[in-house]
Design goal:
heterodimer; A: mainly alpha; B: alpha/beta; six-stranded mixed beta sheet; binds adenosine-5'-triphosphate; binds magnesium ion
């Protein structure tokens, strides 16, 4: 019986420690954002890495996503004779859910994994120690700019995702399947409220902070891993960063959605 | 304020997690002198350095730097103290995302607001000292290991620290460049008579050239601390063997180290080579 509780206790305890460590790390990152004087320049560089370098990927994914939504929506709605609502279906599902969630997941793979790998390599090759010795706060040098950059980039890319997705739905619904163009856009403007848009952006900001915190944290503590050392630890850190971030995105999505509805 | 930048180590015990690497190290690395920490590979020299620069905290003992026991300092106070240190890490630890010129002036560019031109001049000045002037715009990964090490030394001395700590500055360098590194350290010592220079090394040639003080570590314990002359006169068998790298014991070890390959494996290797 005690074995059972011991076996149960260990992972729970580890999980609590992990969450605490991530939370402290996040607070340090935020604190250094305010304290650091050179944040702007570094943030601009990170916006380039997280934001503009991911733009093409987001456009591509969202276009196909919108087109599939248009197709599926069309053939489902036509059964009920309400094809006119296609605009509502496409825009609401994109703006409320798919836009923020898929953008965050794509950015986890595209930008988050490289954050973990880069910071992890810096950790195992003593570069972070060197920063500390030079009295350069490593969190403010590495983490804060990425946090700020993601707070800016995630919502903007989500907006791009939404718009391009709606265009994708238009392409299948109107251009391909001959639906009425006016009806498509009228349904969008009549069904989407400002609250929907606001919630979508709020989600994007939360996901951005989650992804960046988890990915930087995994890289920063790559040398503290128990399962591996050296380059392998960086690899494992990257894998777990992506997995943890994706799970957290969907869990946070559920929580946020249930709060707003 | 006149602080003496001696480093005094008293019964230091340190390691990683539960794994004790340094059992009991005692010694004095005086200011204004070049001290060499000597010891076999894996005996914990880099670990001792990590304690001095505060990257990990000792398990027991005292470590007095600049008149203060750093094991008792608060993190903030220690960071202030550490501004006076320049550190060369064993493999350079240059930031991969920055060019050499940006790397070597990092301690200045981060803490002071200097103009681009001033930073560039400082960068070229220290890179010239280590003979890397023409590589200023290269990235660390475009250089050889020895060049990265020299660039690391350039970064360590750019702010003219009170304490200069170098982890194996000459290993992996050819004899001429190594001699040049030694000269550079001696020149630093002449220019800044108060600077505490600590060099981790197992390069005996450079030991006799640069050392004013030697600390020998063996299996986690300090076995000798004193001047090179005293070291030469020491009769401790380990020290004698270490210093003479005595021919007979070396060949003994070579004999002991060689073990014949399993004939079955040997046959397969031959078959593979022939195929
Ligand atoms: N991060 C670490 N975690 C656990 N043990 C470590 C770690 N780094 C080093 N060690 C152990 O500490 C011991 C001393 O290592 P250290 O790097 O201090 O040796 P060294 O004297 O600098 O050797 P070298 O001359 O080869 O650089 C080694 O036995 C090594 O296994
Ligand atoms: Mg070492």
């Amino acid at each position: 019986m005690t074995h059972f509780f011991a076996a149960l206790g260990r992972p729970v305890w580890d999980a609590l420690i992990f969450m605490g460590s991530v939370a402290i790390f996040f607070c340090q990152g935020v604190q250094q954002t305010v304290a650091s004087s050179r944040i702007v320049q570094r943030t601009l560089r990170q916006i380039h890495v997280i934001g503009s370098q991911s733009l093409f990927l987001i456009v591509l994914i969202s276009l196909f996503c919108g087109m599939v939504l248009g197709l599926q929506g069309y053939y489902t709605l036509i059964k009920f004779g309400s094809v006119g609502f296609l605009g509502s279906v496409v825009s609401l599902s994109l703006i409320r859910e798919l836009g923020p969630v898929l953008t965050a997941i794509m950015l986890t793979g595209r930008a988050g994994s490289s954050m973990t790998a880069e910071i992890g390599v810096m950790r195992i090759s003593d570069q972070i120690d060197a920063l500390d010795v030079m009295d350069i706060n490593s969190v403010s040098y590495l983490v804060s700019p990425r946090l700020v950059a993601s707070v800016i980039s995630f919502p903007l890319l989500t907006a791009v995702f939404d718009v391009v997705g709606i265009v994708g739905g238009y392409l299948t619904g109107v251009a391909l399947l001959d639906m009425n163009q006016g009806a498509y856009f009228y349904r969008i403007s009549s069904s989407v409220t400002m609250t929907d848009v606001g919630c979508g952006f709020l989600k994007a900001v939360v996901f951005g902070l989650l992804v960046t915190t988890v990915c930087c944290h995994q890289g920063y503590f790559a040398d503290k891993r128990r399962d591996s050392v050296g380059p392998e630890a960086v690899g494992n850190a990257t894998t777990s960063a992506v997995v943890i971030a994706c799970v957290l995105i969907l869990a946070a999505d559920y929580v946020l959605t249930s709060l707003f509805l | 304020m006149t602080t003496s930048w001696d480093i005094q180590i008293k019964n230091l015990k340190a390691g990683y997690g539960d794994h004790v690497v340094l059992e009991d190290v005692t010694g004095l690395l005086p200011a204004g002198a070049v001290s060499v920490i000597l010891g076999g590979s894996g005996c914990g020299k880099s670990t001792l350095l990590r304690q001095i620069i505060g990257l990990s905290t000792p398990m027991a003992g005292e470590l007095i730097v600049g008149g203060q026991d750093i094991t008792r300092l608060k993190a903030r106070e220690y960071r202030r103290l550490r501004r006076n240190m320049g550190v060369l890490f064993q493999d350079g630890a240059l930031l991969g995302a920055l060019t050499l010129a940006q790397n070597v002036v990092l301690p200045l560019s981060e803490h002071l607001s200097l103009s681009r031109q001033e930073l560039r001049n400082e960068a070229l000045r220290v890179l010239r000292m280590v003979g890397l002037e023409e590589f200023a715009d290269y990235y660390p990964n475009e250089l050889s290991g020895g060049m990265r090490k020299r660039a690391g030394l350039a970064r360590a001395i750019v702010a003219e620290p009170k304490i200069l700590l170098c982890d194996e500055p000459t290993s992996g360098l050819d004899p001429i460049t190594a001699a040049r590194m030694d000269e550079l350290l001696l020149a630093m010592n002449r220019h800044f008579p108060d600077m505490t220079i600590v060099v981790v090394s197992h390069d005996l040639a450079s030991l006799w050239t640069i050392a004013d003080q030697v600390l020998v570590i063996r299996e986690g314990r300090s076995v000798f601390c004193g001047t090179p002359n005293a070291l030469k006169e020491s009769t401790d068998p380990y020290l004698v063997q270490f210093l003479n790298r005595s021919a007979e014991s070396a060949s003994d070890e070579a004999e002991a180290g060689h073990a014949a390959m399993d004939p079955a494996v040997r046959a397969r290797v031959d078959a593979w080579l022939a195929s």
